[in-house]
Amino acid sequence: MPLMNSDRQQTLGFLVHAAGRLVRKSFERRADGLGLGMSSSQWRLLFWVAKEEGVTQARLAELLEIEPISVSRLIDRMVQNGWIERRSDATDRRVRVIFTTKKGRDAYAELKAVARQVSDEALDGLPEETRQALVKGLEALIENLSLCDGTNASGELPCGSGRATDAKNDTLESA
């Protein structure tokens, strides 16, 4: 839905959230059409496992922002359906690491193609230089906010050092 003239001064947080929601909905609609029989939670987990083969269950919980017990149940279902497999870590047998199976890698390839289609649709009409600037800007935003992943002894967020550039940050509205 296009923004109304009075809404053009939305905050960065609102715009990123709205864009992310629309991209996710478009992806889910198209991925449902593949007939893989996977939930959106399973797609997200498969993406992370494919990107980080050998990832731990604890790391998956962190990446998916869900409780470890929920990740464990999700992994159980995906193992049962043949998408992924658990293995013992080579250095610590108490740790379980997750890998994709051939079936999972094939599904990942299909889902990645859908993601590419959604990305192309989302960026339709934007010149290549604008597309590249948008991606670089979002990468910088992620890097900057990743620095704020906790608080220091005084309870303040440890932001500020390592920012992409002060000039770039001055152009962004606060969320």
Automatic annotation (TrEMBL):
SMART domains: HTH_MARR. Pfam families: MarR_2 (PF12802). Residues 165-175 have a biased composition (Basic and acidic residues). The keyword Cytoplasm does not apply. InterPro entries: HTH_MarR-typ (IPR000835), Tscrpt_reg_MarR-type_CS (IPR023187), WH-like_DNA-bd_sf (IPR036388), WH_DNA-bd_sf (IPR036390). Keywords: DNA-binding, Transcription, Transcription regulation. GO terms for molecular function: DNA binding; DNA-binding transcription factor activity. Residues 156-175 are annotated as: Disordered. This is MarR family transcriptional regulator. It comes from Manganibacter manganicus. The lineage of its organism: Bacteria, Pseudomonadati, Pseudomonadota, Alphaproteobacteria, Hyphomicrobiales.
